[in-house]
């Protein structure tokens, strides 16, 4: 048995072909719904930041600290993705995590205060940390390596859907019933998703799960579940992994700033009403959806025809991130509110292209049964970009002459960071080269 065949299959087993396309996209849709719930739980904090600040007497730095604490717990939780996947099946693991998200919403409703706010957001972050890698593992099990960009874009679009479709509804709920009711509603949605998941999930044909000790004695050399592993450090120190990590680190820092502060920027910095700010929260995500689906649909088609992974999953997303950074650098020079909204939206939207493309590039260079472990570490390290970014933004806003000036300066700083990340990715990411080095 050779490593390359099972690790990177090019076609589903014949018996799977008839059903896999329908089921593949159906189950991809179910997991996208989970990502929407995931990001709605994240995004609600940005929408209630000002009501919480008023009720609890919080400063901008304290709000930023809560945002950063969330991503600290999120990062720690992400490192457990591979371990949890070995211990529990994906079916029950995602149920456990989703119920954990729901449970984290309730304590703040009962016992309100800054301490409980900090604790519950960290609890939510810890339970959400492993989810990204596990969701991608499940979706990739139904799609071959050369066609994972578009499914990855659908997963990444969960964040945009949450901000486009769910955030305005949450903003109305906050305005009509208060932030407590919104938290209870989100908890109920997480429980409902678990029921849907339990009735639909089945593992796909393009990925082998980890082999447990009790199964090793009964597996044979012809079993498809057996695939030779490679040392994880061999994957982690490839130029592709490190270059992609440098890029997504800076982009994720920007994502956390947008998630935590964009409604406040629109409301306090640009002068829009709270409901307008909640509705406009989705504008950058609309741009993100457009660019992600445009880029990944084209790249997947070209990859299936033999086009270069180096170009489509290295150079193109690197250029997209570069454009994003250059757009944000101009923010302090823009004085018209609608133009500021447009620049943030387009720049952010183009930059989001790197998330599904670099996730797909990472999936190319590791054996299937190590996917959850590798993506778990990749996404956990990526999330470290959110540890300091929300808090730093709060400090910058508190120190600035006006909120508008503070937000513009913060966006400029993160724009410079993304330019640096883009240059590193352009030079380093080459999944085809590193796959040969690792898998042979």
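^ Assign residues to that structure.
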């Amino acid at each position: 048995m050779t490593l390359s065949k099972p690790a990177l299959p090019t076609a589903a087993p014949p018996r799977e072909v008839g059903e896999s396309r329908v089921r593949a996209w159906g189950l991809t849709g179910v997991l996208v719904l989970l990502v929407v719930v995931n990001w709605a739980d994240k995004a609600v904090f940005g929408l209630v930041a000002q009501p919480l600040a008023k009720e609890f007497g919080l400063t901008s730095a304290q709000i930023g600290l809560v945002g950063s604490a969330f991503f600290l717990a999120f990062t720690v939780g992400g490192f457990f993705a591979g371990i949890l996947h070995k211990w529990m099946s994906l079916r029950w693991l995602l149920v456990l995590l989703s119920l954990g998200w729901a449970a984290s919403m309730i304590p703040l409703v009962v016992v309100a205060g800054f301490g409980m706010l900090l604790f519950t957001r960290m609890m939510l972050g810890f339970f959400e940390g492993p989810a990204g890698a596990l969701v991608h593992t499940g979706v990739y099990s139904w799609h071959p390596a050369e066609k994972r960009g578009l499914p990855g874009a659908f997963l990444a679009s969960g964040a945009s859907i949450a901000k486009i479709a769910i955030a305005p509804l949450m903003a109305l709920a906050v305005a009509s019933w208060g932030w407590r009711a919104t938290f209870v509603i989100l908890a109920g949605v997480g429980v409902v998703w678990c029921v849907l998941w339990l009735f639909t999930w089945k593992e796909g044909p393009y990925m082998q799960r980890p082999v447990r000790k009790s199964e090793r004695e009964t597996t044979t050399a012809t079993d498809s579940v057996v695939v030779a592993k490679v040392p994880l450090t061999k994957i982690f120190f490839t130029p592709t992994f490190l270059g992609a990590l440098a890029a997504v680190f800076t982009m994720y820092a920007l994502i956390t700033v947008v998630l935590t502060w964009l409604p406040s920027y629109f409301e306090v910095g640009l002068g829009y009403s709270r409901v307008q700010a909640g509705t406009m929260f989705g504008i950058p995500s609309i741009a993100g959806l457009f660019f992600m689906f445009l880029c990944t649909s084209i790249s997947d088609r070209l990859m299936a025809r033999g086009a270069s992974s180096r170009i489509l999953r290295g150079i193109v997303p690197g250029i997209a991130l570069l454009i994003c950074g250059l757009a944000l650098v101009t923010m302090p020079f823009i004085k018209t509110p609608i133009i500021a909204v447009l620049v943030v939206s387009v720049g952010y939207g183009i930059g989001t292209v790197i998330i599904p493309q670099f996730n797909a590039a990472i999936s190319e260079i590791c054996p299937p049964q190590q996917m959850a472990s590798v993506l778990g570490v990749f996404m956990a390290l990526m999330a470290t970009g959110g540890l300091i970014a929300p808090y730093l933004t709060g400090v910058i806003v508190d120190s600035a002459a006006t909120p508008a000036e503070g937000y513009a300066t913060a966006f400029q700083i993160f724009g410079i960071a993304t330019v640096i990340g883009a240059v590193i990715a352009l030079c380093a990411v080459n999944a085809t080269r590193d796959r040969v080095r690792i898998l042979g």
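The mean pLDDT is 84.
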